[in-house]
Write a structure and sequence with these properties.
The protein is mostly helical. Helices cover 71% and strands 0% of the residues. The chain is flat, with a radius of gyration of 18 Å.
């Protein structure tokens, strides 16, 4: 938690915080970027930490929205059934237990499911918006947690396969690939 909060403080332009080396495991800046507004809004450490948890909660709550949209698009259940399934998905115990910590595991499930839904939209409703949403979530997930390093490469391979099968117009695939490539380079320049 300390490393993410220290990086967020630095991103927000607050006092420069020295981040101690904790081995050779790099940490991305994505999660720190997400919680940086907490440092812009508050001055005392307790309020900053609580604000970071609120930001986590907002992102975590998007899991419900992603699930509901996905269910409605793919299976077209009644609103009540989609609501119930989405709610149950969000009540998964391991997911709930992560919500009280300022670390990446609190937001990665929602971001990952958002990536899946954005990929569905890119395939079924290709346009600039779906292309940029997919690209942004691809790199944000990669920037948030080290375990998602392969995601941009996998996304690009999927995009190449989809354009070869003529499922998505080339212009949207090209836009997605260029966006993923550029955002990944920017993201990697902040890893340390």
């Amino acid at each position: 938690e300390f490393t993410y909060l220290a990086k967020a403080s630095n991103i927000a332009g607050c006092a420069e915080v020295s981040i101690p080396k904790t081995g050779n495991q790099p940490t991305g800046f994505g999660y720190s970027l997400i919680i940086a507004p907490a440092f812009m809004l508050f001055n005392d450490p307790v309020s900053i930490y609580k604000a970071a948890l609120v930001i986590n909660s907002i992102i975590s709550a998007s899991m419900y929205i992603w699930t509901f949209i996905f269910l409605k698009q793919l299976f077209n259940p009644s609103d009540k059934r989609a609501f119930a399934i989405s709610l149950l998905t969000c009540l998964y115990p391991a997911y709930l237990l992560q919500s009280n910590m300022a670390w990446t595991d609190a937001v990665t499930p929602a971001l990952f499911f958002g990536l899946i839904v954005s990929f569905y939209f890119l395939i079924n409703k290709p346009n600039i918006g779906s292309s940029l949403l997919f690209s942004t979530l691809t790199v944000l997930l990669f920037a948030v947690h080290i375990r998602f390093i392969p995601i941009p490469i996998i996304a690009i391979l999927f995009l190449i396969a989809l354009v070869r099968k003529e499922i998505i117009p080339k212009k949207y695939v090209l836009l997605s690939i260029i966006s993923i490539f550029l955002l990944s380079i920017i993201s990697m320049s902040y890893w340390h």
